[in-house]
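Running this now, will post back.
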Amino acid sequence: MDTHQEYYVPQQSHWPIVAAFGIFLTLGGLGMTLSDMQQQKDMGFSLGVFLLGAVVMAYMFAGWFGNVIRESHDGLYSDQLSGSFRRGMGWFIFSEVMFFAAFFGVLFYVRVLSIPWLGGEGDKGISHMLWPDFVAQWPLLLNPDPEHFKAPDGIIDPWHIPLLNTILLVASSFTLTFAHNALKVGNRAKVKLFMVITLALGFTFLGFQVFEYIEAYKHLNLTLETGVYASTFFLLTGFHGAHVTVGSIILLVIFVRVLKGHFSAENHFAFEAGSWYWHFVDVVWLCLFLLVYVF
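Update: finished.
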């Protein structure tokens, strides 16, 4: 089978077992950390479990994708398998779309249904009898029971750091597209240049988001304990930040592979897959900027 045009069936692998173990440790450690944080307990053990899971996941990704890269370089992948890779990546991004759709659904329910009901609107208006002074508004800066549930002192101004981060991410999509087009014509110097710019923009975005979170906690009392506005804010922006982090790591690995001479104008699916993921993250941010920060 010199041409390898039959469907390639890989050898048995231990990586799925390692992945399952790493996911168990990571999510279990994260859950214990959040629980300990809420109960103000020592988080040493739970953080240790989470970090161990993160190390196992990093080991799994490096080993598993290393195998895939070697198999690709050995010419084991046919056009049929390349099509499977593309469909698989497409379905993965679709699952991520639904992931964020669920979170935006939470935001919709809170803003359009739950808060108006608490304010006395509609069939659920009986809730207004419990808190007659509650005013339904968004952002919610006065909780229904302010004696037991503190409210944030303010919200993030969308026209400073959030707007700057929007410009950074949109610009990074353009520079990544420039890098992709340069790869298609074999101009590796431009690929390296635009990849460096894309990575700089992505990591700058993360730095500004960390600064934004610090400002929210220290100066605006915007925390997970100050009501549903703060909870949905950190839920959506936090998970998006995690996706930007993953996307930045993916692009960093792609950049290292470019430096090592990987990819060609005809064969560069890994580059394409990373680009698809990054563009998806950018589109999600545009939705976040409009629905979380502006409106």
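Residues 140 and 229 are 6 Å apart (CA to CA). More later if anyone needs it.
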